[in-house]
Amino acid sequence: MRINQVLRVSFRHIALLLMLLSGAALAAHAQTPPPNDSLGRALPIACGQRLVASTAGARVANAPRGTCAGGFLGTPGLFYRFTAPTSGTYQASTCGAAKDFDTRLFAFDLYSGCLGGNDNAPGCGSASTLSFPATAGVQYYLFVTGTSPTATGAFELSLQCSFVDSVACVKPSGVRLTRLTDSVASVSFASVAGASGYQVTYQAAGGPVQVVAPAPPTPPVLLRGLRPGVGYTVSVSTICPPAPSQPTTTNSARATARLAGVLGVAAARTGAGILEVYPNPVTGGRLTWRLPAGLAAPAATVRLFNALGQTVLSQTLPDAGDAHTLAVRSLPAGLYTLWVQRADGAASSQRITLE
């Protein structure tokens, strides 16, 4: 009798231990990261396919950084990839039956980076619907994520490859880049009739793609935070008006321009093309500037930019030789940049302080 009791107690202990171990194993399994929570392990999705998945267990460390279409990307999610069979506008959506959390949806390519994003599509509650341009033979990525680093849940992702815009999207023409200061450039281009805005991205060689946000409604567009002496590739895309009951779409064709011949900091320190400005700091409401004798030109355009890159003074000189004065008494004290462009297109700039 005693042996049977001991055996029953032992069996109960063993059963309890097995339950605990089984529960621990299930908990560990529940926390196993999904196989496609990083860009390098994106799973394929095909035209017309609908996939049901969950972001539970996706790691924040694998989430993309920065912003896309004005949305913050530092939240965990899942990546999908596909190669466009034809050129045109494609539509991805989490507006399906299998959803239990607030999704956000983004599209990328390896050329220009962010193609667009969406949160809470009209008529779809907390789900997302996004249309974006694609070129035949190019690989694209979709990223499904939540609204916070701790928000996870199930979703249903679909990809539609036959979406047609209600209007024709025409790419911008005449894209031109002009260096204004050591860190600011202006992107100009011909406006597209009927466009609701433009997507402008810029990228230094080997650097990340940066998106101008919010999307500018008209040209020109200012790029700030540029590095002197570095060439930038700029992409300008037309954002078309939405088709009936569909999200806004972006033109698949892109016009690009490259910023070249930028005066570098090292060159400026050696005196090559540097402006002579005095007094600096400027006192008395008036400054004098002079180009080096070898760089003086018959004509030049002179602009003064404030710390935000805004033009506060502008004038055209028929003769840029000798010294010139500029009245700045009406301007508030602060940091400014004096920019002089000769008739042959060469430009020089100098930072000044108004007191």
Description:
This protein is mainly beta and 355 residues long. It folds into 4 domains: 1-30; 39-160, Sandwich (Jelly Rolls), CATH 2.60.120; 173-259, Immunoglobulin-like; 265-354, Immunoglobulin-like (Sandwich). The protein contains 2 helices and 26 strands. The chain has helices spanning 2-30, 265-270, and strands at residues 43-44, 50-54, 67-68, 71-72, 77-83, 88-93, 104-109, 113-119, 129-134, 139-145, 154-160, 173-179, 185-190, 197-204, 210-211, 221-223, 232-240, 249-250, 255-259, 276-278, 286-290, 300-306, 311-317, 323-327, 334-342, 347-354. The strands form 7 sheets. It has a 5-stranded mixed beta sheet, with no helix packed on it. Strands 14, 15, 17, 18 and 19 form a 5-stranded antiparallel beta sheet that branches. Strands 2-11-6-9 form a 4-stranded antiparallel beta sheet, with no helix packed on it. A hairpin with a 4-residue loop joins strand 22 (300-306) and strand 23. The chain is elongated, with a radius of gyration of 29 Å. The termini are far apart. Mean pLDDT is 74; it is low at 14-29, 163-167, 244-253 and 260-273.
